[in-house]
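Protocol step 6 of 9: fold each sequence in the batch and record its structure tokens directly after the sequence line. For illustration, a two-sequence batch is reproduced in full.

Sequence one:
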Amino acid sequence: MKANKNKFLNLFVILLFLAIFIFIIVFAIRPSNSGDFSSTNVDNTIYVTLTIDYSAVLEEDNYSKLSDNLKDDEILSDSGTFLNDIEIELSDESTVLDALILACNENNLSLDYEPASKVLQNTAYINGIGGLYEGDCTKSSGWVYCVNGIEPDVGTDDYLLSDNDEILFEFIVY
């Protein structure tokens, strides 16, 4: 009986050491939530903000040139924006076009664009957002974009976003 008790005690001690060993290994390998917060997100998620602005159309000189069918408050409100600083969650490696498509889909906003495969410049082209199209105000009016206040020299489908980027789509009138 004493031999069985010693075997049980030895087995218990071995199992206890094994459990402690596994516990240490698991917590030593698992990434910590503390430390350098500037490092890349572990879950490969980024957050950006997006604004879609058409306030230039509402300026008196431009509004008089606007297509009559767009002078309806149901299409273009006095706010001058379709979306204003909305936060979008994306996977890393997402482009400005990905953010725009997602924002428009989630906010029931129409989006008309040509994919890169159909455009001579081999980059996506934004024809219209929210019913406001290129040429609706003047021949040279249309959509441009900038990220963090800078107008990139690449198309929306080529610009890779980073966490906390601020995207602005703006309808400009020349």
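Sequence two, same batch, same settings:
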Amino acid sequence: MNNSCETGFMEEAPVDVASEKSDFRKTIYKLAVFGALCVFNKLFLIYIFIYPYGLIAKGLDKSAGFEAAYLLGWIVNELCVYFFPILAAYFLFKTDFKKRGGYKSRYEFHPVFTMPVIFLSSIFAGSLATIITNAVADVFDSWFGTGEIPDAMEGTMPPEGEAGGLAIAMIFLVITAPVCEELLVRGILLTALRKHGEWFGIIVSALVFGFIHGNLDQLPYAFVVGILYGLLAVRSGSVIPSMILHSVNNLLVVLGSYLTQITGEIEPAVSLQRWVGICLNLFFWIGILATVTLFAAKLHKLPGGILSSKDKARELIRNPGIYIFGLSLAALMIT
């Protein structure tokens, strides 16, 4: 394997540190604007969809049934959460798609090997992050009475026996949500940020991925999983593999959440719930081996860009945009 394939840099790419620093500063300001717009969307723009939804929901004939109202609710939710942030990210970063610097569009990628390794690693690492977060939350609860972390899936699943509602939840949580989130985070943001170093783009896009979920229950899992999905997107040169893994992950979550709320000894639901739990436990333990394999195969080895890590750290500390971006991410959690 030649060095250009391993590092991902084109040897003829000119190195202009001053120009790169200037471009890096502009990128941070763009991130600040994007974060502020996401907060603005969550505080104000969502009412463009919520108010009409309220009027339509009231006007729905009762004979339309539960599924019609549930479907309308999901459509409005998807529009509120994804429509404006995707537009904002695209128009802010569209010029960056053409300025890819010296990195390759993709790296050595074997889907049959890489995708299972990253998927199993993501389940292990994400679950471990959630376990640690919950343990810390329990300590704070015992010391300061802060309470438990609310379950983000509570109220999301349809009531027991609503098969039509479950099908609707499957469509939006297993198909549309992964597609929209991957297009936004890995398709737009990561692609635009990669020119400043692969891991810079992966980490920042994973932060956005974690915080746009808007709750502490999903934040640690989404952030850690976002890092691994970003690694997959960079190595494959496409968001399709991460979309597939994202959909499979959400399918397991939806099944687990829905089956957990079913009460009584209802077959085959009880047996299916048992098997889903067994699979998740199995994936977690196999994920330890997969994580070791990921590092052993050096899948994490990626170039860092023109600026060194120290140079990037200095630019970040001096740039007020990074503080606006950070405050915006925090605001997404509390608004």
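Proceed to step 7 once all outputs are recorded. Observation for sequence two: Confidence is low (pLDDT under 50) at residues 1-13.
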